[in-house]
Design brief:
There is one protein chain. This protein is mainly α and 113 residues long. The chain has one domain. 75% of the residues lie in helices and 0% in strands. α2 packs antiparallel against α3 and α3 runs antiparallel to α4. It starts with a helix and ends in a 14-residue tail after the last helix.
Length: 113
């Protein structure tokens, strides 16, 4: 086990940040954050809920990650892996905008109840 920890620490010591890595990591953090938003909304409403913030985080996280794969890494697998889910997320945002009025976030608003 200590060998594994030593290996991880050595790998982290060799990790070099570039602008594109920061963009990619920011995209990954946004994309991951959507699950915490969905978990919070589901716990709060005591039923499965997918709030619009989930889709907004999906689109923004995917866009940053896609930019990393296109310009920072030139990785065709990452581009394909990121582009399709991003299109689905964009579609869901557009579909929601067509069906609902603009969502206003205010203290005590519908997302708080």
């Amino acid at each position: 086990m200590s060998h594994l920890i030593d290996h991880v620490l050595q790998a982290l010591g060799q990790f070099h940040f570039t602008t594109w890595k920061v963009v990619g990591l920011a995209g990954t953090l946004l994309f991951t954050a959507r699950w915490f938003v969905q978990f919070y909304a589901t716990r709060k409403h005591r039923k499965v809920v997918v709030p619009m913030m989930f889709w907004y985080l999906s689109v923004s996280g995917s866009a940053l990650t896609l930019a990393y794969f296109v310009w920072g890494k030139n990785d065709s697998v990452g581009i394909i892996q990121t582009a399709f889910p991003m299109l689905v997320s964009i579609y869901n945002v557009i579909a929601h905008m067509r069906e609902h009025r603009k969502e206003t976030v205010v203290p005590g608003g519908p997302e708080e109840s």
